[in-house]
Amino acid sequence: MNDKPQLPSPEIIQKTVENWQEVCRRLDALNELLDIANNAFEERILSNPVTAYRLRGIKPKAIEKVGE
Fold first, then answer.
1. 55 by DSSP, 3-state: which?
2. How far out from the chain centre does Cα 29 lie?
3. Do 45 and 51 meet the contact criterion of CB atoms below 8 Å apart?
4. First vs last Cα of the chain: how many Å apart?
5. Distances (CA, A) of 31 to 19, 39, 41
6. Best CA proximity match to 47, nearest among 68, 24, 63, 30
């Protein structure tokens, strides 16, 4: 009885690695897109006069980054 799992062939391992690399590239692209969208929303929110009034005197790091 030989119930030990066998390692997949090098070709299958290489294909799996390539697939995971593509997944990572897609997730990186999605993260970049979400960062751009988040910055746009923050900029729009902070340009609202009511928000500016409410945040007067408070300068969190997120606001400082948008202002730079």
1. coil
2. 8
3. yes
4. 68
5. 18, 12, 15
6. 63
